[in-house]
Amino acid sequence: MPLKMYLYSVIAAAGLLSLTQAETDPRVRVALTLDTPSNSVSTTPSGRLFVLYACVDGTQAQRLPEVVEWINDTGVPFPNAAWNSYTGNTSDPATTLVRVNSQRVGPDGNLWLVDTGSPGFGSPVILIYLWLDSEL
Q1: Annotated domain spans of the chain
Q2: Cβ(75)–Cβ(64) under 8 Å?
Q3: Grouped pLDDT means (10 residues each) for the chain, 136 residues
Q4: Hey, which bits of 78-136 come out as E strands?
């Protein structure tokens, strides 16, 4: 059965709603609990789950990739490790995710990312889409 994400699940996983409340209200389901701050989660209709780790200060969260697909209880860099390998001035913003601040799966079925294009603010923002034509 595909994983279903509810808004209440995100709230519960973020710690804004206690697990006790989630256990007593049948509308609330904790879908995922993370040890690393995250600022967005998206799912596809078939249940693929994408997580965006928070990158508040311009650095990668605990040296983790920024965008992962959650597979078998593990965050797998998405679209791959190379795109999630930004290291500063030696990285090319055209081929790496620099500082993604939001993501969503759109009605077109694509994963859309908004990337600042630089570790700070003030640069042109980059809108990236990743084609999710095949549901793995």
Answers
A1: 34-130
A2: yes
A3: 39 50 75 83 91 68 76 92 84 84 90 83 76 63
A4: 100-105, 111-115, 126-130
